[in-house]
Amino acid sequence: MSNEPVDVLIIGAGASGAAIAWSLIETKMRILCLEQGNHLSDKDFPSRRDDYELSRYAEFSCDPNVRRLKQDYPINSKDSCITPVNWNGVGGSTMNFLAHWPRMRPSDFRTKTLDGVAEDWPVDYYDLEPFYEINDRNVGVSGLSGNPAYPKYSVPNPPIPIGILGQTLAKGFNKLGWHWWPSDVAILSKDDNGRQKCVNAGTCDLGCAAGAKGGANFTYWPILENAGVELRTNARVSEIQVDKVSGLANGVLYYGADGRLNQQKAEIIIMACNGVGTPRLLLNSKSDLFPEGLANNSGLVGKNLMFHPLTGVAGVFDEPMKGHEGPMACSILSQEFYESDSSRGFIRGYGLHSGRSTTPMTFALGGYGIDNPIPWGDEHREIMDNMYPYLAGLTIVTEDLPEEHNCVTLDNELKDSDGIPAPKITYRVSENTKAMIKHGEERAREVLIAAGAKKILSKNDDNVWWRAGWHQMGTCRMGHDPKKSVVNGWGRSHDVKNLFIVDGSIFVTAGAVNPTSTIQALALYIGDQIKKNIGTLFD
Amino acid sequence: MWSENEKNILNIILDQLIPKNSKRNIPSAGELGIASFIFDAANKNNNLKDDVVFILDWALTKADKISPCLVRKLEKENPNAFVSLLTETYKGYYSRPDIRQKFGLSKKPVHPSGYLVVSESNDYLAQITDTVRARGPIYRDPTGG
Ligand SMILES: Cc1cc2nc3c(=O)[nH]c(=O)nc-3n(C[C@H](O)[C@H](O)[C@H](O)COP(=O)(O)OP(=O)(O)OC[C@H]3O[C@@H](n4cnc5c(N)ncnc54)[C@H](O)[C@@H]3O)c2cc1C
Ligand code: SF4
Prior knowledge:
The complex is a heterodimer.
Chain A: E1 6-11, H1 15-24, E2 31-34, H2 64-67, E3 76-80, H3 111-115, H4 125-139, H5 163-176, E4 181-182, H6 220-226, E5 230-232, E6 236-242, E7 249-255, E8 261-271, H7 274-283, E9 310-316, E10 332-334, E11 350-353, H8 360-364, H9 378-386, E12 391-398, E13 407-415, E14 421-427, H10 431-450, E15 455-458, E16 499-501, H11 516-532
Helix pairs in contact in A: 1-6, 1-11, 4-11, 5-10
Chain B: H1 4-17, H2 34-43, H3 46-60, H4 68-77, H5 79-94, H6 97-102, H7 122-128, H8 130-134
Helix pairs in contact in B: 1-2, 2-3, 2-5, 3-5, 4-5
Bound molecules: flavin-adenine dinucleotide and iron/sulfur cluster.
Iron/sulfur cluster binds next to loops of chain A.
């Protein structure tokens, strides 16, 4: 293994790391990516095994505290009502993500101007629009063009079938005159370039053995490796080093597969470790120049953590809804309650998502990511035989506003297998979000009844889903003002001029949509800015 | 390490957790011998093992009297051990291909074949989205586009 200095060192081979590497290929710079996990092939995915569903609660759980694989770092979530979930390996969390692919909307980038909350982004929808488009093509997005919830754009592939479940719910929305649309998904509806089209298996969280899902492991990494980008797996970065004189980052220390510490020098360092992994690494990179953690003169590294708190409501219908068929996350999406409306008693809004792929096992165990088993005994039989097959549900996915007390810090005791401090999450749901959830639950009931549901099932408590920490944002936010942000308008640290961050931690606000299409569009935008400013990059 | 007697007793408890549906010919958890699955899992997980041992100790004295009422008492008095057993029972039961099939899922692993879901036609999609499109744009655009 060569540890010769490289031009560009990317930390993390997930959604954003892969996208920016792709953008930078044409510069002919020498690019190296260090990834703490390994590279799984589709043969390693469990969905070809008889007992494939068990892996969801073991080595393929979305929760690193359940998986406990060597490459996983533990997360202390005792002071949080939501725990972050992820995948640590090539593809990052797009290995087990569900590929729901909505864009953020123009108003998401201007919450301060429009609604007087949070901060405006230093970029807007139209800055990102060309990059959304490039990325949609690279990833292989399917959907129906013409969604009136967005400025016009076209989707490269026809939609994935919405199925009986989506059709039924759509009728409910239509009856009420509310917006809905077939979901955009990063899933192929047609075979493409060696990747098979979706076969509706419903195991998107288990890697997608068809290769239909647009995980970075299937989309960007094969191209990157062909183009000569070096990918070093089982390489966990513990610290980014800075030159005392220039104040520039000059390399990293990382643990290799053999557990030994190595040094890697680089001209440009790009962090793509996600909204928890990136602040963790910055906070662990303390030096005389940066005693509070690298690039942390603002004190905002790790602060303003945002998730998308969510809950669900389901209806029991007359016909079987075939909820186990089709991609998991998405069939249709309603954005009727997305924009602010002061009469509702909260600011900003939420989406109503119709999920699928509820299997008898996930349902009996309380729902994907919930782990709260349904009743046993005669009641169990009644629920499983007479309700489960007839269920269609809606999840209420809310916008989370940035609050400094919601944060990632370093745990004083808990460590990963290389002895690096684990992240600690401190997080609570705001009153604004609680009001949104309540409003959303009531609206979801109305739609389900309008769609023909005979009975409504909901949780009857205030808890949000525990394992809903799949979207991690805001912990190194971007902005023009170095006192109020960690990176500038194109991802460069205000404090360390050759350090960039491209993952979800740079989000200023969270929107109420799944973030990955925006994360990758932003990474491509930052790549583009690096190329445009290459001559004056460190000024 | 688990005796035949322990297995039988655990299967009796499991019959209470997931009873059978005779009409639809769906067996109970005990009939399927899910106790063996639970013992295998417990051999790999000490916390689960402690819970199973605890529940078996409790049940050994009541073997032929195990009823829904008694199991309800166990649940109330020892909620953590009970949930741990219940969770494992659901996993063991619903991971069986034959049970999956009873609920309309494929008996085979889902890949490579998956499920056939017919795509909606363009006409159908145009018709069902008609009212949504008719309302026009519903987003705020602060930049004016
Ligand atoms: C179960 C689940 C479902 C999801 N569903 C959706 C969805 O439907 N739609 C959507 O938009 N999003 C979804 N997401 C979220 C989506 O996966 C993330 O938004 C996206 O992957 C984030 O990209 P990223 O580049 O910021 O981080 P990741 O993709 O998580 O990549 C980070 C990488 O950095 C590596 N890394 C971290 N620290 C170090 C270190 N110190 N040294 C070396 N390597 C390191 C990690 O191993 C990882 O591979 C889901 C996530 C999960 C877990
Ligand atoms: S439903 Fe489609 S995307 Fe999901 S795992 Fe199956 S083939 Fe892949």
